[in-house]
Backbone:
């Protein structure tokens, strides 16, 4: 089915009003849903808008959002990266281990972590573009390989706050003009990625490869280098997310960040990036992360059973992709009708 | 019988017996024989490769321990992989049609929890097991209907139900674990056929494997599976009900995953929301290692059965070598990637050998559909 039509391109004319265009924009709709949902939760549980709760929920969301930006790039090229959670876990653990065992300066440890993430992403990219392994198979493999490496590094140990430099976890609760530091970082990442996607050759290549790889290659887009690059970027951003994960929790196990790939991919899909490639934005992915973070937090502040979290995640993903499919089928029909007239 | 890249298989082929040696053709016997030989040589390539790997692994295991090649070890280590093996049989036709089912491991957890919950609330197992199997069918139908009716990619849909089913498992059982199952039930997962070292579950797997070989390689259903995987639109125009076929395959996958959940519950005597975690990786690994193309259209059930024994032997040998389960996943992940890379390297080296021998450049264009690549 022709479901890869970008949601914000169809139906020129018609309802040309700003409101109509906003309603059709996935990002705006989702942002509206986030605001309404946030208000409902706040009415039910005023503690939701307390500054400690807001900082903790948005900091966690920022971590997922940064990883989701990388995942969005990958999914726009019609690939998938299932290994982000293992990259995050391995990076978080390695950073903590070099801080504890080798006493390297904090900034150097962070650089090691981000570099490690980049390297792991490049390994994915090499397996996928040079050895031509489909990305779902390649990253399903590295999902367990990277996790296994974390167990090797951990060797039965776990890292606690006392193993880390004093005040290591402070940045996770610090704010700058009222905005948590992690959120500022996430916003910066989203802006850079959004600008790169929109205004650079690389960005256009990402969409071109995702829409039609062969056609893109025919008109001179270097498809394989583009795919390699998005996996490298995804690994690097997962590395950043892993570093932040360590700062946020200060307590690390070999299994840290398990299950986060699902949250990251869910954020991207809910944010309107089509899994069939070629359409979607990183801003949408970031708002998707915010939406899921909000639901997660709502269960906590409303004292609802945490067991429902995965059920809600699953239902929300299904709802988002199903709505997309229905809207696009209707848009195609509407366009066919207007052409007949 | 196979759709190996080397076999000269052409487009969706709905005529009987051209893709399958096990179906006697009504026509000329000479044609059948030559076709059978052609198919046999095509199988030999990938399956022979798997047999060689298996022999090497067994040899390695024997080096590690003199007890490796004994009945008790065989029984014990085959038992440990039976749940994933049974699910791999159902996953094979799904991947051949170009789809995937990532939700199987969560269905294992859900079915295990439903069984435990029913048992804990006083429902006898004779009634509980059919209910659990129906839950599996319902979950599979849910996947299939959403994939086919809404035209959504199965990757996303089953990723969503992967979360959904696991979440429901937690909702059903909370954080409790049920483990007071009757011995009559746990004997099925833990016991052996009297007087042998063959676990009951291995017997079940072999029976299901025979059914799978017959269905995929010997019936119109199997031919439709390959046809859809090679060209969905062409098969639809040829009268294949693509939606119904895929929905059916997902329903079977759900049913089999629920059955695997029952076996796991029986073998470990535990119903827990965490049952089956990380099994999807192993299931997909078995299918891909067995030569099933993740892009659809190619694969054989005998290859998958060989891959089951390779994975079982590898896990057993690693255990003998003192490698814990956490690290074993590294080996399985590597195996998954290598099993995709190796046949490609083999093909490329053939091209290279040809070039050296004939002083010819390799073809720079992609082979046309049905073209024989040597």
Residues:
């Amino acid at each position: 089915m022709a479901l890869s039509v970008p949601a914000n391109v169809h139906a020129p004319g018609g309802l040309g009003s700003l409101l109509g265009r906003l309603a059709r924009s996935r990002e705006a709709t989702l942002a509206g849903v986030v605001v309404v949902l946030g208000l409902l939760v706040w009415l039910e549980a005023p503690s939701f808008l307390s500054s400690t709760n807001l900082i903790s929920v948005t900091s966690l969301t920022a971590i997922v959002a940064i990883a989701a930006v990388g995942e969005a790039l990958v999914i726009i090229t019609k690939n998938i990266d299932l290994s982000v959670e293992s990259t995050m876990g391995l990076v978080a653990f390695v950073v903590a281990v070099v801080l504890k065992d080798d006493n390297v300066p904090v900034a150097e440890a962070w650089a090691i972590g981000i570099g490690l993430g980049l390297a792991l992403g490049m390994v994915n990219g090499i397996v996928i573009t040079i050895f031509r392994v489909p990305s779902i198979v390649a990253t399903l493999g590295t999902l367990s390989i990277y996790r296994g490496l974390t167990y090797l590094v951990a060797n039965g140990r776990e890292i606690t706050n006392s193993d880390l430099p004093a005040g290591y976890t402070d940045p996770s609760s610090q704010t700058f003009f009222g905005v948590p530091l992690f959120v500022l970082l996430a916003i910066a990442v989203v802006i850079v990625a959004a600008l790169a996607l929109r205004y650079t050759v690389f960005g256009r290549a990402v969409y071109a490869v995702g829409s039609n790889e062969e056609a893109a290659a025919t008109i001179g887009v270097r498809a394989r280098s583009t795919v390699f690059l998005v996996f490298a970027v995804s690994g690097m951003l997962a590395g950043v997310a892993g570093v932040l994960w360590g700062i946020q929790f200060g307590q690390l196990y070999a299994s840290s960040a398990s299950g986060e790939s699902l949250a990251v991919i869910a954020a991207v899909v809910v944010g309107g990036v089509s899994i069939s490639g070629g359409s979607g934005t990183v801003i949408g992915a970031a708002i998707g992360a915010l939406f899921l973070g909000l639901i997660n937090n709502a269960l906590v502040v409303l004292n609802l059973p945490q067991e429902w979290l995965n059920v809600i995640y699953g239902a929300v993903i299904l709802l988002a992709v199903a709505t997309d499919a229905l809207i696009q089928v209707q848009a195609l029909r509407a366009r066919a009708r207007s052409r007949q007239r | 019988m196979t759709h190996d890249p080397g076999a000269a298989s052409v487009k969706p082929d709905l005529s009987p017996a051209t893709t399958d040696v096990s179906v006697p053709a009504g026509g000329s016997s000479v044609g059948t024989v030559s076709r059978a030989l052609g198919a046999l040589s095509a199988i030999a390539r990938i399956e022979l490769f798997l047999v060689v790997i298996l022999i090497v692994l067994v040899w390695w295991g024997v080096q590690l321990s003199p007890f490796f090649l004994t009945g008790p070890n065989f029984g014990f280590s085959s038992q440990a992989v039976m749940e994933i093996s049974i699910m791999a049989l159902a996953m094979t036709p799904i991947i051949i049609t170009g789809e995937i089912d990532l939700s199987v491991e969560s269905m294992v957890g859900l079915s295990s929890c439903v069984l435990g919950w029913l048992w804990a609330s006083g429902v006898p197992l004779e009634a509980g097991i059919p209910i659990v199997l129906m839950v599996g069918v319902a979950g599979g139908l849910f996947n299939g209907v959403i994939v086919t009716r809404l035209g959504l990619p199965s990757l996303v849909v089953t990723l969503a139900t992967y979360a959904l089913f696991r979440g429901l498992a937690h909702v059903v059982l909370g954080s409790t674990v049920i483990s007071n199952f009757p011995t009559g039930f746990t004997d099925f997962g833990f016991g052996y056929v009297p007087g042998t070292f063959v676990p009951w579950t291995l017997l079940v797997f072999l029976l299901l494997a025979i059914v799978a070989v017959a269905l995929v390689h010997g019936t119109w259903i199997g031919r439709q599976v390959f046809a859809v995987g090679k060209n969905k639109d062409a098969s639809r125009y040829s009268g294949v009900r693509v939606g119904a076929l895929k929905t059916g395959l997902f329903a079977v996958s759900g049913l089999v995953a629920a059955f695997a959940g029952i076996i796991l519950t029986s073998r470990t005597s535990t119903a827990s929301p965490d049952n089956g975690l990380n099994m999807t990786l192993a299931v997909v690994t078995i299918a891909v290692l067995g030569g099933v193309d993740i892009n659809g259209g190619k694969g054989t059930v005998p290859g998958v059965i060989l891959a089951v024994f390779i994975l079982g032997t590898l896990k057993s040998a690693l255990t003998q070598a003192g490698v814990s389960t956490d690290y074993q996943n590294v080996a399985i992940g590597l195996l998954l990637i290598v099993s995709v890379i190796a046949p490609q390297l083999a093909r490329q080296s053939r091209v290279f050998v040809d070039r050296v021998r004939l002083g010819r450049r390799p073809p720079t264009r992609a082979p046309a559909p049905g073209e024989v690549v040597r």
